[in-house]
Design goal:
about 170 residues, two-stranded antiparallel ribbon
Length: about 170
């Protein structure tokens, strides 16, 4: 995806939404200094460092938790530069702060995630991180206690998914 610059709120919002979508779905790069129509416009800059700081600050202030981002600045275009912002996918669910909305991609554009998609994203990350640990007996006890309770978020399906993906530590040493 391309963003024409950093001078308008619309450009900054687009950068943040693209970065959030990449962090939630797949690694990706946003090109800054090229309009969506394909025109190389460049970005005015004082120094490479100030442009890099502006890009990193826009992402850090715009997304929570802050995703892993790398920037490259390409100078040699007079008082304008091109930049790329590389965003790495992470297990956490990233949200645009100003909108309290998580994004992913559909047809190459950032789209808001539904509540169910956010829950599934969080479940997948939790299982990937803790699925191999031997916490089944403790989770089973907690699950049995929770079955009598009602809560706004039913975590029992998640507990059962984790439980099915665990191996007791004692079995690892036999």
């Amino acid at each position: 995806p391309f963003i024409g610059g950093l001078s308008t709120q619309e450009d900054l919002d687009a950068l943040v939404r693209f970065a959030c979508a990449f962090a939630n779905s797949a690694d990706g790069t946003v090109v800054v200094g090229r309009s969506p129509e394909g025109n190389w416009t460049g970005v005015p800059y004082e120094t490479e460092e100030t442009l890099r700081d502006a890009l990193l600050e826009a992402v850090a202030l715009g997304i929570t938790p802050t995703p892993l981002v790398e920037t490259w600045i390409y100078t040699g275009y007079g008082e304008r530069a091109l930049a790329t912002v590389r965003v790495r996918k992470a297990p956490a669910t990233h949200v645009v702060r100003a909108e309290d909305t998580a994004y992913s991609f559909a047809s190459g554009e950032p789209v808001p995630l539904t509540t169910q998609a956010v829950i599934e994203h969080a479940q997948t990350a939790l299982i990937a991180r803790y699925g191999g640990l031997s916490i089944s007996p403790r989770i089973s006890r907690i699950a049995n206690q929770l079955e009598a309770l009602t809560d706004s978020l039913d975590i029992l399906p998640l507990v059962r998914k984790i439980e099915s993906a665990t191996v007791p530590i004692l079995q690892c040493f036999r």
